[in-house]
Protein: Amidase domain-containing protein
Organism: Psophocarpus tetragonolobus
Amino acid sequence: MACNKLLGFSFCFHILFLILLLISSSLLPTTIAKGFSIQEATVYDLQLAFQRNLLTSRQLVEFYHKQIQTQNPVLRGVLELNPDALAQADKADQERKAKAPSSLSTLHGIPILVKDNIATKDKMNTTAGSFALLGSVVPRDAGVITRLRKAGAIILGKATLSEWSHYRSNDAPSGWNGRGGQGKNPYTMDDPCGSSSGSAISVAANLAALSLGSETDGSILCPSDYNSVVGIKPTVGLTSRAGVVPITPRQDTIGPICRTVSDAALVLETIAGIDINDKATIKASKYVPRGGYAQFLKKDGLRGKRLGVVRIFYSVFGNDTFKRDTFEMHLKTLRQKGAVLVDNLAIDNLQEIFKDQSENIAIAYEFKLSLNAYLRDLVASPVRSLADVIAFNNKHPKLEKLKEYGQDLMLIAQKTKGVRELREAVLDMARLSHIGFEKLMITNKLDAVVVPLSFFNSILARGGYPAVTVPAGYSKGAPFGIIFGGLKGSEPKLIEIAYSFEQATMIRKPPPLRKL
């Protein structure tokens, strides 16, 4: 505990693995027994291996420890390991022997990494990647962590991220934070996108079975797209944000980043629901389906779905004919699987939306207010306000690379005063969403819009709408995804669509092994 609280990550990380190596001269290979491979295994695969006594949770955690030891020094997807993960695994193994399989959750005994802005009341830190919060003590587990623990999931550790969820500076690169350094895309060794970069890097490279990320504007969808994994951005309020280092409660949402749609659906059904510490979950609970989200994993889920194609979003391809041809092929696949494509649609006020500065204005106000509230609630912390964070960065410029990256976004937020401009900005965004994306969906009776990443994530972010991204291909080795987005509460339809597409295409492939 003292190691995690007081010393740097690199030192603690290597001490932990020296201990592990002393305990066992060799950690687990990819194949455990009788040909079963953990590499790329889904939750259903792992649970079946548990039931057939081919695998234990301890072996699974040890496998991921070895993967992290081998690859993380290069990829930097994991910021901190949970020193209690093996004990949690042993507990899961004991429970599996003592209880009927039907009484255990689907995530029981499965390791999951969580983004380092999600509070865990244990021996790990919650820092949003910044040294300013190193040693802070959270009052309780985040709401989503409480649900994961109740389900018997093993909290494997904290994933890296773009520092302060990419709301420190416009100049800071995606995937970088002071504590962990620069995260790397395992396919290209360059931009992993952010801010949930470590969550996507880690599941893509098989450093964890599952992960959680958070999104304000693109922070689940973009890293999932860039790292060839599945990301679900839930309707705002569907999952609790309590105990999560905030940007804005109006747009922040917590969601799964996994290798498959089925794994992501299982995580979503575990973390969705009411949390008394997040009032937005009460209103959004009407969207949570009885029986969870796994029931929507249907191979024929595309049949009869009306999908809108807004061609302006495809202009992002530029001269990349491979991507353009690949998406045309995917549109053909969607039709073949029974979807009705409504092509050549347009969002009437798109130009107005992207000239509008309401989102930037609102986030600046809300970041200051919500971060100050989060910091005040901590049991102990080196910083208690945004002003304190700014002062910390000024005091430790080398630690936080202040000269290289600055803190312009934080400075803008700190200067905000009053609420009139905030109210006007929020009302303007609601108006633009109503006469734009919502009108498109309702007028054309669409179940979803199908687009490449492009700038569609900002449309979804402003209105709190959900989306699922699925691997769509590789252009010169660099992954890209396809996004299905819909109106609030449309997760069941989006999962049906995404799963059916995934099963029809099966595009994802693991990245090359990276090691020192």
Notes: The domain at 28-297+357-420 is CATH 3.90.1300.10 (Amidase signature (AS) enzymes). The chain has 20 helices and 13 strands. The two ends are 27 Å apart (CA to CA).
